[in-house]
Amino acid sequence: MLKPRSTATRELVRLDGLWRFALDSDEVRSPWGATLDTALEAPVPSSYNDVFADAAIRDHVGWVWYQRTVRVPRGWAGERVFVRVDAATHEGRVYIDDQLVAEHVGGYTPFEADITDLVAPGQEFRLTIGVNNELTNTTIPPGAITVDAQGRKKQQYFHDFYNYAGLARSVWLYSAPAVRVDDVTVVTDVDGADGLVRYDVALTADADVTVRIEDADGAEVGVAEGANGVVRIADVHLWQPGAAYLYDLVVEVRQDGDLVDTYTQAVGVRTVEVRGNQFLINGEPFYFTGFGRHEDTAVRGKGHDDAYLVHDFALMTWIGANSFRTSHYPYAEEVLEYADRHGFVVIDETAAVGLNYSVVSGFLGGPTVPTFGPDSVNDQTQAAHAQAIRELIARDKNHPSVVMWSIANEPDTAVDEARAYFEPLVALTRELDPTRPVTFVNVMLAPVGVDKVSDLFDVLCLNRYYGWYINTGDLEAAEANLEAELRGWEQMYGKPMLMTEYGADTIAGYHSVLDQPWTEEYQAAYLDMNHRVFDRIASFVGEHVWNFADFQTATGIIRVDGNKKGVFTRDRKPKAAAHALRSRWTAIGKEHGQPASVTQGAS
């Protein structure tokens, strides 16, 4: 799905700000039929849970309603008019006045509707958006809903981060011509010193297409005719980790010689390949340093915030990180665009987290049922998972920063049923995008020799917590056990291995001269132990610490005000481990020839 852009033939209006807001209830009936009768206002973009000082809103299960009045710019006469929602967690409905125009299930990918026939340039309309946070065994991510003895609806979710909900990303009104670019797909390659840009343009009607490629200075460096083809860029400037270079692919659509639409797509020319036990970018071995992260800040929840966007990337640059995983859902498109412009490498992940009922029944205290079954993960779940993969790739396929698709985090792959579930999903991912490696993230409960699906994937991504959940406080035993398992994976598969999670909960300001869990010293020693092991494994291609920053979770016996594994606090203050990581990662960056933008010398 094309992201709306302002071009010579298109305009857009961001509808962010304060919207009328209400919980769905017996008193709030058909809220799209009239002005919402409420005194509450909610900010967009933002999760609604922590904005109000009201437990009933924070813990609400079900639909909520956002509403505002919108005026269509009077200059849009003769244009098609669309409303687009960047994300509604986890289900959305859009109404124009009292007319339902769009429905979507899936909390982290966009949806839109053509509303041309329902609105008029220069006139106002009432825009109502319903958002439902309910999760079931057939949603991605999954969950379960119960009703307690007091008649209160309760949501159990199977992931270890807070189930923030609402309109966490922007809402847009935009115009486009009737005959227009409907989609653009770009695949890049390298031929000697030249770059090859293969493109495919989908149109809403037959028309003539010209594609021009402009360099960063706006000079034309290639041109082609037709809706699909190849443009050769002589002496190409490659997009590289830490040294991003973007070209503009400008699509021009003409009918009878007249320009009817134009759309610009940023392009980074680079190649990605798995060869033996190496992960290659532009034919050179790449070593991932960085984090699993979360879209999570105080008050806003998962609400996108440009200030935090810039600050978080600045901290990742300071610490020497060159990459991150969008754990455990697709991030806002603005995040990927920033990564494109600044040379960060991204593992892009679906929202398939929690497909593991053994973790739910043990770690999270949920039902003791098999992961795969008619009342748990079933054919409907698999269909929802497939749709999540389709939408992820459709949205993010053109980002040069995205080098690998992760289709699930910590699913139950220790049982035979996992293979029948995942094999068609891997095939679908490769069919949709044969150019990028495919992975999933393996949980400790499915170690080497127990896991049933890793042979299907290109890269082994492992989450391991030796020294924290296992061998707690005993780093000597943890080091031996971690190395033994990693060597087993290496011997069995010979594939690139990436540690996508390793970490220890740490209370900022808690200190000890001993190896005491929860102290800043223990977190640093724990990470150092892992690094010694990584450095001894030839197939190791990277390390993503869990987590970039402390984040909110459901409150429970093992979580007090969230997960504390961040090397930065939730308000982005560094713990001692951040300085240790900076020393290691800047040295690794220099060793691998990365530019100064990601190797600012450690002090």
TrEMBL record:
Every copy of the Glycoside hydrolase family 2 catalytic domain together lies at 272-588
Taken from the record, one Pfam family name reads Glyco_hydro_2_C
A Gene Ontology molecular function term of the record: beta-glucuronidase activity
SUPFAM superfamilies according to UniProt: (Trans)glycosidases, beta-Galactosidase/glucuronidase domain, Galactose-binding domain-like
Record-linked InterPro entries: Beta-gal/glucu_dom_sf, Galactose-bd-like_sf, GH, Glyco_hydro_2, Glyco_hydro_2_AS, Glyco_hydro_2_cat, Glyco_hydro_2_CS, Glyco_hydro_2_N
Q: Which UniProt keywords apply?
A: Glycosidase, Hydrolase
Q: Which residues form the Glycosyl hydrolases family 2 sugar binding domain?
A: 14-177
Tell me where the signal peptide lies: none
Q: What is the protein name stated in its UniProt record?
A: Beta-glucuronidase
Q: Which organism is it from?
A: Microbacterium jejuense
Per UniProt, what is the name of the gene that codes for the protein in this document?
A: uidA
